[in-house]
Amino acid sequence: MPTIFIPRETTPGETRVAASPETIKRYVASGLTVQVEAGAGLQAGLTDAMFQAAGASIVGREAWSKAAVVIKVAPPEPAEIDALAPESVLVAYAWTSGHASAVRRLAERRISMLAMDLIPRITRAQAMDALSSQAMIAGYKAVLLGASHMTKLCPMLMTAAGTIAPAKVVVFGAGVAGLMAIATAKRLGAQVEATDVRAASKEQVLSLGARFIEVPGLADMEGAGGYAKEAGEDVLRRQREEVSKRVAEADLVVTTARVPGKKAPLLVNEAMVKSMRPGSVIVDMAVESGGNCELSVEGETVVRHGVTIVGTRNLPASVPLHASELYAKNVLNLVKLFVGKDGAIARDFKDEVLAGCLLTHGGEIVHKATAEALSAGAKA
Q1: Of the CATH numbers 3.40.50.920, 3.40.50.720, 3.30.1220.10, 3.40.1180.10, which one belongs to the domain with range 3-118+320-379?
Q2: Which pTM was predicted?
């Protein structure tokens, strides 16, 4: 029977694991032999004994070279790529813009890589959409992080000593992460306002009990797959002008705006930070893509002009159990598209979901946008 291998993540700060006891049971039932590297799930609260009880064998790093399918979370390290068996299948995040050499090496070694960050945004693929499942967790944790750094409480409280006014929260972006941030802030009792360049987001924001910040004359900027298009400087300027007065009054600002394959748009400049009250907080969820706040520092929490700016990387990894369980189900649903009920692995990848996220195959970079971007980068 073909073997599927789940390694221990080695990327610093990556606490998630690509499988759960539940998904391992499903792999075994489909006819696959499942191997898990010792200690792979410990940081997520999943022990080797739990994986063994689900039907997996606990193995060492040597399993890389023997597996037909390897599933993991973070993009593969160079040594991991070299350890893979030629013609094997790798399922993981790719983040191609920051891992060009890895993509080329995967093609050279004839690895078929299915990139979880390239899953097409179509109805059929919703159960495989790891970007959405992890963004939901990140949006939740961003508000909790912000609240932990604030110098005041979130809800309105009426006490014998007087009334405490509710905190004011402003959320930039109303995608999956932004909507979860809005919902979480509302649950904590804060007053919430949100802004987005997509017209469709207004109804979603209002449905959560938040106020939508209108930007006069702003055209709808929704692109393919529900993502926001890259906005021009005039659009961003008008948005900043309209939102700046809300930012000045906010106790917590959460920014979530990203454009796939592009640098994150600058939404909160230094002047806006200066306008905020001392003790207020900004959580920049786009810090790994360049940041929405001008003063964010990736991987650090800094204080600028009396404002705490949180630039924590990889927020889903701070909630590793549930993040792993959701990611594992996303991966399972993808793997089911190329593994038959008898455990046989189909390698044509013609299904529209598989074709959409297939990065390398047959010795080539087959994802068109990635191939073009890497080619342009090589010529620059």
Answers
A1: 3.40.50.720
A2: 0.91
